[in-house]
Amino acid sequence: MQAAASAPGADPAHGRPATSKISFQGLVLGFAVALLLFLVGYPLLWLILGALGVPQSLGFEHLQRAFARPQNYAALINTLQLALGTGVMSVLIGVPLAWATSRTNMPLRYLVHALVALSYIMPPYLTALAYIFLLGPEAGHFNRLLQGLFGFESGPLNIFTMPGVIFVIGIHVFAFTYFLTYSALKSVDASLEESAQVLGAKRWQTTLRINLPLVAPAITGGALLSAIDSLALFGPQAIIGTPAQIVFLPTRIYATIGSYPPRWAEASALSLVLVLLTVAGLALQRGYLERRSYITVSGKGVRTQLLDLGPARWLLLAFCMTVVFFSAIAPVGTLTINAFSKSWTDPLSFSNLTLEHFRSALFEDQVAVRGIINSFKLATSAAAIAVLIGAAVAYLDLRTNVRGRRLLDYLAILPLGLPGTVMAVGILLAFIRLPIPIYGTIWILLAAYVARFIPLATRSANATFRQIDPSLEEAGRITGASWFHAIRRILMPLSRPGLLVAFLLVFIPAFGELSATILLYTGGTETIAIAIYRLNDLGQLEVVSALAVFTIVVVLTLAALVNWLSGSSWSSSETPAVRG
Amino acid sequence: MHAAPDDGALKAFASSAQEEMAMRIGRRSVLKGLAAAGTAPFISHHAFGQAAAGPSEAGQIDIEKAKAEGKVVLYTSLDTKIVDAINAAFTKKYGIEVQYFRGGSSDVTGKVLAEADAGRSQADMVDASDVAGLMLMKERGLLKPFKTPATGTIAKELRDPDGTWIADRLTQAVIQYNTKELGSAPPKTWSDLAKLDGRLVYFSSPSGDGAPRLYTLASNLSWDLLKQLAATKPLRVQTPQIITQVLERGERAAGFLQNDNIAWRSKAQGKPTDYLFPAEGVPTEVGACGLLKNAARPHAAALYYEWWMGPEGQAILVDGGKYSSRTDVDPPKGSVPLSKIKLLAPNHVEYKKDKPKILDRLAATFGGEWGN
User: Fold this and answer.
1) Which residues of chain B have a CB within 8 Å of the CB of A259?
2) ipTM value greater than 0.85
3) pTM here?
4) Between β-strands B323-324 and B343-344, what pairing exists: parallel, antiparallel or unpaired?
5) I want to staple B253 with a disulfide (CB 3.0 to 4.6 A). Which of A266, A289, B90, B181 is the partner?
6) Which letter does DSSP use for residue A364 in this model?
7) Under an 8 A CB cutoff, do B207 and A238 touch?
8) How far apart are CA B300 and CA B242, in angstroms?
C-alpha cells in the first residue's frame, strides 16, 4: 500500500485527474489507507497469531486443544442449529410478507413494510430483553394472558429454550430475506405474468411457477444472509441463551476471555472457526446471487401488476400483522410501557405511571449517564473517521488507477463478514500491547467501531462518488484549481448529502454496539449498550427499559433522517452530474 | 476444604489471639479452611521487593495529596446500591469523587488481569467476592502490601499475612423462597430442595461467578447433593439480584445459594419472600479488597481503602445487609449472628489451584457455560 501514498498515479488516457508526484493528495489518501490497514488488517493478523499461541508460544497445540474440548463442540453445534433455524424461519415469514407487500393489493402494505424495517433497525438485544418480559416462563405478559384465557397452571411458553432463541433472533434477521425478496419481486416484469395468464394459468399457478422461480435466488441469498447474521448476534444469544443454558460460539468466546485468567489462544481459535463459518456462508450466498442472471429481474423500469386477492387479502393482512406484531410492535410496546411503569409486573394504569426511570437512566445512574455520553462521543467520532477512510478508499477506487486499490476495497468491505465478537478479539490482541497499548482506554472502542462499520461508509461513499461525473473535477483542475481545491469546492459539495448518509449509517449501529464493546470496555468507558446489559444483570429492568426506549428513539430518528436524505441525495447529486 | 478435621490448622487457630473472633464468626470449620488460604506460599515475592508508590500504611496517607489526585477508581463486585451509599458518604466527607466499574467477581478479576497485561491498570482499588482472584493478583505482583488499623479487628485467616488483601465482608449463601408458594411448608435443608422439581432457581454468570459457593457446598457436603439439585432442572440466572426478582414474582418457588443480604433486603421490603440458613451448613463467601500497586492515585486510593475498611464504611455495608468482616461491627439489623450459624468455609487455595477442573465438573453437572 506504500504505492498509494507515494504515487497515486495519474492516467490521463483514462480520463482521470492528473496529479503531481508526491502531493498533498498522496498524503491524505496514504494516511487513510494506513489507518485502514492498521485498524482492519493488523487485528486480523493478530487473530491468527493469537490462535497459534503468540506471544507465549508458537505452534498448533492451542488450536488442537481448542478443538478437543467438548464445550467448544457443543457451542459449534448450537451455533449451526441457530443458523439453520433462523434461515428457515426467515423464509417462512419473510417470503410471504415480501410477496404480500410487493405483488398484492393487500391493505396497509406500507405500514407492514415500515414495521419490518423497524424490526431490523431495532438493536437485537433490545428485542431479546423485551421477550423476557413478554415470554418469561411465568411472569411474561403473553404467558399470563394464556394462563388467564385457557387456565394453564403455569405459563405454557418458555423463551429460554433453543426454539426461543431461534424465534427471537429470527424475527430480527428475517428482514434480510424480506428485503431481498421484496426488491426481486418488485422487478419481475408483469408481462411475464400476463403471458402466463393469457396461456390459461391460474393466479396461484402464476405466483408459484413464474414469480417464485424467478426470485428463488434472492430468497436463498436472503436466507443465507439471515443465517450468517444470526451467528454473530452476541446480545440475544447471551440474554436468552445464558438462562437457557445454551452456549453459542460468540458467548463461548466471551466466556473464555471473561473468566480469569483469560484464555487468549482458545478465544482466537474459536474466533477463526466463526470466521470460517461466516466466510463459507458468504461465499455460498455470492454464488447464489451471481446465478441470478435473469434479465427479467435486473431489467430497469419494469411494470408490475398487483394481484387482486379479493377477500383473501384480509387473511393475508392478518398473517402479516401477526408477524410484525411479534417482531416490532410487541417488543417496542412492552419496553415503552415498562419504562413508564412503576413496576413492570403490575398492570398498566394511571397510578402505575412514572417518569422516575427516565430520571434515573438519563441523569442519576452513574453508568447509564456515562454510557449515554460515551455512546454519543464514540458514534460521532467513529462515523467521522469511517467516512474519511471510506471516502478515500472510494476515491482511490473510482478516480485513480493506483495499483492495489481493488485489494483495498476488499479490505474495507471485509469487516462486514466478521462478527463483532471476532473483531473485538483481534483488536484486543492487537492493541493490548506495544506499539499501541490502548486497551483500557476509550480509544480501543473507537478503533473497534471504525473497523467494524467502515464497510458501511465505504459502500455509501462509493455509491455517492459514482454518481458524480469525474469530468466536473477535471474541469476544475484544467481551469487551475489544485487537487485539494477541486475536492473541496467541487466533489465535496456535490457529495455532501451522500456522505452525510454514510456518516449516519455508521453512527446508528455504533451508537448501540454491544458485541465488540462487551469485550473491550472498562471502568469509565461504558456505553449505553453496556449500561443496558449490566443493569439487566442486576435486575433493574425498569431503568433498562428507559435506556432501551431512549436508544430506540435516537436510532429511529436518525434512520428516518437517512431515509429522507437518501431520497434527496439522489436528486441533488445526480442532477449536476447529468448536467456536467 | 475436606470433611475430615485438620488438627494442625485447628491448633494453630486456637492458639491465636483471635479466639474471641472465632466465637463471633462461630464455626471452626470456616477458619480451618481460611487458615490454609492465609498461610499458603506465594511465588511472586520478588514483586514485593520494590517500594510501591504512595503510602504503605494508614499513617502515611496525605489527605491534601489525596484531594489533589481528584478521584479514585474502584473495581468492585459489590451490589451497586451499597457501593453508591459508601461512595456518597466518602465524597461528602473528602470531596473526592469515586468512579467505579461494577461487574461479577470474574469480570472484576479478569479486567484487572487483562489491564495489567496491557500495562495499563485503571483501578486504584479492587474488591471482589472471590479471594482466589485476589490471590492470583497478588501472585502476579499487582497488589500493594498495606498496613491498616483494620487488621486488628479482622481474623488473621481473613487477610493476607503480607497485607495485600483483606476481607471486607462475608456473604452467606442461603435458601430464599417465596412465602406464597412454600409458606406452609418451607424447605429446611438443602436436600429438601431436591424435591422441588422444576421450581428452583440459582445463579452463575457465563464466566462462573456462582462457582465458588457451589464448590464450597459440594466439597463440604457432597457433589451428590449438587447432582440432585441439578436434576430438578433449576432455572439459571446471571446474578443473585435476579434470583430475588424471580422469586418475588413467583416464577420459581425457591432459590439456592442466594446472597443473604439480598434475601434480607427482599424480606425487609415486605416482598413475599423469606430465607433460611440450612442446618447442614451454609457456604460462606469471603469478599476482599486490595490496593493496586500501580495505582495512579495512591493517596486517594489509600484514603478510600481506609474509609471502606473503617467503622464508617463498614457500617454502611452492614446497612446494606452484608456481614462485616470486622469483629467490632454488629451484624445487619434483624439478622442472625454468624455465631449461631453453621458456616461452610471456602478453600481458596484449592479453588485457585483446581479451578479449571472444578468448572468442568460444574459444567458437567449443570450444563451451560461456566467459563471453563
Assistant:
1) 106, 110, 207-208, 359, 370-372
2) no
3) 0.85
4) unpaired
5) B181
6) I
7) no
8) 34
The answer to whether A106 touches A316, Cβ cutoff 8 Å, is yes
Q: Do A522 and B110 touch (CB under 8 A)?
A: no
CATH superfamily, with its number, for domain A79-333: MetI-like (1.10.3720.10)
Ranges for all domains in chain A classified under CATH 1.10.3720.10: 1-7+22-48+356-580, 79-333
Asked if the A1-7+22-48+356-580 domain carries CATH number 1.10.3720.10, the reply is: yes
Find out whether the peptide bond into A437 is cis, omega within 30 degrees of 0: no
A252 touches chain B (CB under 8 A): yes
Show the cell assigned to A294.
435473469
The alpha carbon of residue B302 and the mean position of all alpha carbons in its chain are separated, in whole angstroms, by 20
What is the per-residue burial (b if ≥16 Cβ within 10 Å, else e) of A45-73? Answer: ebbebbbbbbeeeeeeebbeebeebebbe
Please name the amino acid found at residue B3. Answer: A
How do B282-292 and B343-344 pair as beta strands?
parallel
Q: Cα separation of B31 and B347, whole Å?
A: 10
* Mean of all residue pLDDT scores within chain B: 86
Question: Which candidate from A260, A437, A440 shows the least CB-CB separation from B110?
Answer: A260
B317: nearest Cα among B130, B83, B156, B93: B83
B269 has pLDDT over 80: yes
Q: Are A385 and A250 in contact (CB under 8 A)?
A: no
**Helix, strand, coil in percent for chain A, rounding step 5:** 75, 0, 25
Nearest-angstrom CA–CA distance, A49 and A54? 5
List all residues of chain B from 144 to 203 with a beta carbon under 8 Å from chain A.
none
Residue A414 cell numbers, joined:
471485509
> Distances in Å between the alpha carbon of A309 and those of A113, A316, A317, A320?
18, 9, 11, 15
Element (H, E) at B144: strand B143-144
pLDDT at position B55 is 93
Would you give the DSSP letter of residue A318?
H
The yes/no answer on whether domain B41-170+285-333 falls in CATH 3.30.1330.10 is no
User: Domain segments of chain B: what residues?
Assistant: 41-170+285-333
pLDDT in tens, A436-479: 888 888 999 999 999 999 999 999 998 899 888 888 888 888 88
Closest by CA to A271, choosing from A111, A51, A438, is: A51
Separation between Cα atoms, residue B213 and residue B202, nearest integer Å: 11
Q: Which of A115, A549, A198 lies closest to A361, judged by CA?
A: A549
Distance CA A301, CA A278 (A): 35
**Sole residue written with cell 417464485:** A212
Chain-chain contact of A539 with B73 (C-beta, under 8 angstroms): no
Work out the pLDDT band at A251, boundaries 50, 70, 90.
very high
pLDDT above 70: residue B5: no
